[in-house]
Write the structure tokens for this entry.
Amino acid sequence: DAGVTQSPTHLIKTRGQQVTLRCSPKSGHDTVSWYQQALGQGPQFIFQYYEEEERQRGNFPDRFSGHQFPNYSSELNVNALLLGDSALYLCASSLNGQGSNQPQHFGDGTRLSIL
Amino acid sequence: AQSVAQPEDQVNVAEGNPLTVKCTYSVSGNPYLFWYVQYPNRGLQFLLKYITGDNLVKGSYGFEAEFNKSQTSFHLKKPSALVSDSALYFCAVRDGYGGATNKLIFGTGTLLAVQP
């Protein structure tokens, strides 16, 4: 049973560049959430995708955008990268309809470093 | 606004001793509470959750948590710590204003260090 997989594991970019991070949800899951975890902090919710649409968004600027594909996989895109975007980006999946009290399953994250 | 607080940045305990990692919450309505663990360079692993029912919740790897409504706390506990329990622990609450989503709001984390 494949868990949540994310790629790449590490990425180095420079300020102003654009980046795309990818996530495949756990088998059987249809909902994907993205979180940003800065060093020494807890994860912060970026947004959630269900049925290929953004269902809810956290307090992040429009430079952060996403997409969900028909196979439930998802991408996180960040434009005009800033030094402050350096963080671990976590993808989490769950199954809609089981109730919002079900735990989310997390991938190992993509470590993004901005130079 | 929904929030959780983890008052201790780090907890040190000797192997074999009981451990407690503290968490307090602030929510509107009924709290849905979770504990996750993060090992170095890894994502978050689910340990346990409280939705309703018994105040003592049992989870993975021998961990349990006690829900206390009057103190608005959800402390993580284990009767006998192992060196392999050393990791970063996060308390989280489901955002009650999230509608259909299960968006989580996390605390800042507590580093658990178990000495041999």
Chain B touches chain A at residues 32, 34, 36, 41-46, 49, 51, 90, 92, 94-95, 98-109 (CB under 8 Å).
